[in-house]
Amino acid sequence: MTSARPDGVGEGDRVTEAGRVSDPSEPRRVDLGRFDNADFSPGASRLKWAAWYAVSALFFISYLVPCSAPKRVLLRLFGARVGRGVVIKPNLRIKFPWNLELGDHVWLGENAWIENHVAVRIGSNVCISQGAFLLTGNHDYKDPTFRLTTGPITVAEGAWVGARALVTPGRTVGSHAVIAAGAVLTTDAEPYGVYRGNPAVKIRERQIRGA
Fold this sequence. Notes:
With 211 residues, the chain is α/β, with parallel strands linked by helices. It is 11% helix and 26% strand. The protein has helices spanning 46-60, 69-77, and strands at 14-15, 21-22, 81-82, 87-88, 93-94, 100-102, 107-108, 113-115, 120-122, 127-128, 133-135, 137-139, 148-150, 153-155, 160-161, 166-167, 172-173, 178-179, 184-185, 193-196, 201-205. The chain has a 7-stranded mixed sheet. The chain is globular, with a radius of gyration of 22 Å.
């Protein structure tokens, strides 16, 4: 038998911050009010962060500047490493450009989203198609405070991330791999592998014809 304290709370009971007694047999709940990402650093000052938000809204998340050259310059000014001939379509979202590395002749499609809390490295001759999502941030769903988790993403030379495909945190897309439209990549993709589905699975090898 569980003994009770003078306030009526049993030894096995849990008391919430609001003072409510909860039954230990009840499923535990998430409390987003306790979320705290103070240990996460975006890698730049708040002033630089705010300046990027303004520049991004004017030049990247819009159709006002259709050409790529000024956007390449702006990315470099904010700390991105950008190679030659990078094509940047309108309405591209980049979280933190100082965490971005682009090789030569990279194509970044309309409505693509590079959500780079941490490093995203994209090799030369990579195509990131329309609406593709490179996601470096996630949450620990077992943690009652919904703790932020992160993992870097690498997309190696010659790979293609198809329209509306999702690459999850910590993944590597191997050289010349293909992630088909709408696929959700939850494991590393082998070089020259073609992946599709949710979760994405390898369905064949990519064969590139001779010139």
